[in-house]
Specification:
Elements (H helix, E strand, L loop, with lengths): L1 H17 L6 H17 L3 H20 L12 H20 L3 H17 L6 H17 L3 H18 L5 H16 L9 H9 L1 H12 L8 H10 L2 H4 L2
Helix pairs in contact: 1-2, 1-3, 2-3, 2-4, 4-5, 4-6, 6-7, 7-8
């Protein structure tokens, strides 16, 4: 309808006006989240993609023109946190509207922002981030990284959330265990096939996904099983 298109144009133009100005950066982030909410409320998938591209381009402009007067300083923890909060909300919205490719792109954006930060996000926000990653990997039928994300979520909750009940920890442990057991067994390969497999794009892709989970090496079914045994998860999932 015309008024919906008008509202979308308002959000788009306002964000373009407010971009890369440290005087109104909180207003910019608030407007961006309102615009994502608009896309969810009216199921505007095309606009959601355009909005995601816009905020991504605005961030690139901030990095490119950081020397200009009144430009946003991403070295400021408060400014960086505002961007992270919006991207985490964006990820929630992408999942809600079932735009899984946009969800992956947003995860990449969040990872890039975390690389700029001198300290990790708050444990609660990080736990939610890993939980959302597990859902995205599940939709992509990537059982290995779904299990890894659930493992990261479990570790944060177990280590940081002092109020977590025994039942909650048992449920999380059971989720990690079942997800790990659901990882397909690796097919047997000859030495030549193994060599060729190391050369293909799968290795690079897995390294990228591992970086999203703050892992130094690409995981395997075997290393994940060893990890859950190390943390005593089989017994905790009873």
């Amino acid at each position: 309808t015309p008024w919906v298109k008008f509202l979308w144009d308002v959000y788009r133009h306002v964000l373009d006006i407010l971009k890369n100005n440290n005087k109104v950066e909180k207003l910019y982030q608030d407007m961006a989240q309102l615009a994502f909410t608009f896309c969810i409320k009216y199921e505007r998938k095309t606009e959601f993609r355009k909005l995601s591209d816009s905020v991504r381009n605005h961030l690139n402009l901030i990095i490119k023109h950081s020397h200009q007067a009144n430009s946003i300083n991403l070295n400021d923890p408060a400014s960086l946190q505002l961007h992270l909060d919006t991207r985490l909300y964006q990820l929630d919205c992408a999942i809600t509207i079932s735009l899984w490719q946009e969800a992956i792109k947003t995860i990449n954006d969040i990872h890039s922002l975390m690389q700029l930060s001198k300290k990790k996000p708050k444990p609660q926000a990080l736990a939610n981030y890993y939980k959302k990653q597990a859902l995205v990997f599940s939709k992509a039928n990537n059982r290995l990284f779904e299990a890894c994300a659930l493992m990261k979520h479990y570790q944060l909750v177990f280590d940081q959330k002092k109020t977590a009940t025994v039942q909650e920890k048992q449920m999380l442990a059971s989720g990690v265990l079942m997800a790990t057991l659901a990882i397909p067994l690796p097919s047997s390969m000859s030495e030549n096939e193994k060599y060729l497999d190391l050369q293909n794009s799968t290795k690079d892709k897995n390294m990228t996904l591992a970086a999203y989970l703050d892992l130094q090496h690409a995981p395997t079914r075997e290393t994940l099983i060893a990890d859950i045994v190390k943390h005593g998860i089989p017994g905790k999932g009873d």
